[in-house]
Amino acid sequence: MTELRASVRLQFHKGFTLDDAVPLVDYFARLGISHIYASPLLTARPGSMHGYDVVDPTRVNPELGGEAALQRLVKTLRGKGMGLILDIVSNHMAVGGDANPWWLDVLEWGASSAHAKFFDIHWQSHDPLLRGQLLVPFLRSDYGEVLAAGEIELHFDAKRGLFYARHYDHRFPINPPTYGDILQHSGHPELQALGKRFAALDDSADGQRQAAALFRELVALASKAGHAIDRALNSLRPVDGQNFEALHQLLERQHYRLASWRTAADDINWRRFFDINELGGLKVERHDVFEATHAKTFELIENGLVDGLRIDHVDGLANPRAYCRKLRRRVERLLAKRPAELQGSRFPIYVEKILGEGEQLARDWGVDGTTGYEFMNQVSLLQHAPDGEPVLAQLWSESSGRGADFMAEVREARQLVLTTSLAGDLEALAQGLLLVARDDIATRDLTLGAIRRALLELITHFSVYRTYVSAAGRSANDQAVFDQALEGARTTLAEGDWPLLEHLDSWLGGQALSELPPSSQRKRRAKMIERFQQLTSPAAAKAVEDTACYRSAVLLSRNDVGFDPQQFSAPVEAFHDGCLERARHFPANLLTTATHDHKRGEDTRARLAVLSERAEWFTERCQHWREMAAPLREELDDGLAPSPGDELMLLQILLACWPLDLQTDDADGLHSLTERLTAWQEKAVREAKLRSTWSNPNERYEQACRNYLHTLLGSDQGAALRDEIRSAAMEIAPAGALNSLAQSLLRMCVPGVPDLYQGCEFWDFSLVDPDNRRPVDYAARGQALADAEPLGQALEHWHDGQVKQTLIAATLQARKAHQQLFARGDYQPLEVQGEHAERVVAFMRSLGNQYALIVVPRLTAALLGDSTTPLIRAEQWGDTRIALPVALADKALHSAFDSTAPFAHSGHLALRDVLRDTPVNLLIAHSPSQESQP
């Protein structure tokens, strides 16, 4: 099997199974892919479209074809020398519903369940009504209302002898010692006697074993006395909103407390993934949980079915460093047991980790790098013109009435999520720190309110997702992050609360735990550090990705997962520095420009970035379009619909994703675009949490926004504006396409491993999920690759996307032919001189006597002018040239994209030559001896 050279991310679900991928392997091999990078494959909630809601990690998802289908896929991959990277979910499982046996066992037996310690549950809640109980916030409305409405139904599983309550899709097992409360209503002597035996049980392991025997007896009795059980169930069923007291008393005796879904934000006593009630946090730091949740993955690795791992949301774990190092050790022990033909291959492990500004992935985790969000950000910064920022910022502020300071939006959003959807998590942390304070005479008078206020401001000013405190305390980098947050908190916290910040600094890692003697106080403080670090991460994600990125739109191409929208652009030198840093420390880091989580497709962002170069033009267009759109807006009690900010976002999105060949009189095409944009618009206004939210949708506002969009794209009233928007989109489309080709080539040539997202070998004008997870037309892509032509010829019909595929295939074939050069070669920025030097990125990869030279343009809108093709006319480059290293003096430079003669050079390479026929170029150096070979 080949080493990892290039991957393609595939999203598996019941509509695209493992067997569906088998016939695509040949296509991916011809494209130049070495590994399929699969979304989670273990058993997820039935019907899952993404696989991150795992309900059974012990088997491959039968909806995907099960393990047999996985074996068929891997066998096909092996036939092409290819491998498989698997995405695994270590932080959480799906809960609620009726599909997770571990969760149902916890509901049934409470803290005595064998799986109780699998989930991160705070059994001793600060709420006295929840002591020893689990809050189960899955009811559609308030408990009393739902109970009276008869929507909590009691059922009997006659095959297994189990009683359970049901509310729509949610199953709530009844604790066996309370079966007597049900069976006493049966009127059947044998059932009533059995009920007394159930009532004598306790929740201990012995009690659970005894219950198993009683279940069998109940099954046998039910076969001849089923009518009596039905009578018992009917006696506990509310009628017309009355007679629900008996059922209520039964439910009160369970190990859980049923509650409205709205209670979770304030009262939750178990860790979730972010604020999603249906995803419960796992305590994978426990050895038994680690082994149980990873057993199938380890088996697949040992059997040679998996060749690399991607760890989802590593920052959600209690101790990412310890987890990753333990995972690496376990994997390394398995490698010697793998099939002989796989021996000796590097087994890569990647973490999904969002790096803040200036943050670096720790080098002692034993991983090969991240999934590549930071590279996506670096390329984006490279393609934004700094001169456009003040113009676009002014447009946004004047149009929306909101400031252009993204960090101000983030801080406001953090305050919001910490006091709403994550309020319960913040409260649990504050309550725990109150106990820490009470451990010390010097801090015993600190109040819960003061601790809560200081915590809120501290987390509000955090600049990264989390810190990584060890027993020895914080690292210097983490201390710098904490100091910055402390300083920020002082600017918004009343001065009287400042001293408390110093205590938080000490309690949350400033004082090393190793300095404290072993004690309950030390354990308590360690737990609070863990909870704090597991709270700052979702607070950041919910505030930045799921709120601020939909409230601020200076330019939406700078609002995406892993981006820092506060930073608008960066010079070429910053891009080179990032590549050099990666080459030194994580040369096998994944490099991506599109993911299943992106907010805008890679080509959507690339086209939108052009507006940074044409900011004045865009400002004038927007002002004109908003005047034209006046009849489409509605005046509601709470303001215009859509709001000026939401309208400006929509105009940006329309320009960015307008299909290249969509005409304004194409009813079917416009209908498809309208459906896609309607889904995006609903998500955008709800995520912003300004005029509507997921928990409390403002239907009047949302309907007015839909009316605006549908009229604009689907009626005669919107025809004139529609024509203008399409025309403007086509005007910037060539520059956007050139950005796209540039980022594609950079992704495949800089240090790291290029990762292609499914279908993105053609143009990717997708929006946020689920739009970015639509079915891919692989038949068209396969045919296009079979009909491949030189890059220059593909440019002539660039609208169909084949030019992008041609670029990708040719570059990946060059990587395959010079695998070690691109995998291990040095990275050397090259000096660009002349008239448009700042508009060129040039660098060299070298290893021994192998050399590759990469040239891409940037900020090209002015150079393209009115060209309708993403190719800059040669004369536009003037005297712009690349200074070549001495090592290339006697080398012939051949393009990987055509078979023309080598480029002439004498210490310099002219842009008018190297980019005459292709928008970007990859040159492979050959020595004179190689040139003379036939």
Description:
By secondary structure, the chain is of the alpha/beta class. It has 5 domains: 7-91 and 282-371, TIM Barrel (Alpha-Beta Barrel); 101-280, Maltooligosyl trehalose synthase, domain 2 (2-Layer Sandwich), CATH 3.30.1590.10; 405-551, no CATH class; 613-732, Maltooligosyl trehalose synthase, domain 4 (Arc Repressor Mutant, subunit A), CATH 1.10.10.470; 777-926, Sandwich (Immunoglobulin-like), CATH 2.60.40. The chain contains 34 helices and 28 strands.
- Biggest sheet, spatial arrangement of strands: 16-15-14-5-2-1-20-17
And the CATH topology of the largest domain? Maltooligosyl trehalose synthase, domain 2
Strand content: 5-15%
Structural class comes to alpha/beta
Our measurement of the CA-to-CA distance between the termini, rounded to an integer number of angstroms, reads 30 Å
Find the count of extended strands (DSSP E, 2+ residues).
28
Flag low-confidence runs. Answer: 930-934
Question: What is the CATH class of the largest domain?
Answer: Alpha Beta
Largest sheet: number of strands, sense, barrel closure: 8 strands, parallel
Instruction: Tell me the number of helical segments per DSSP (H or I, 4 or more residues long).
Output: 34
The CATH superfamily label of the largest domain reads Maltooligosyl trehalose synthase, domain 2
- What number of domains? 5
Radius of gyration: 30 Å
The global form is globular
The overall average pLDDT, rounded, is: 96
CATH architecture of the largest domain: 2-Layer Sandwich
* Helicity range: 40-55%
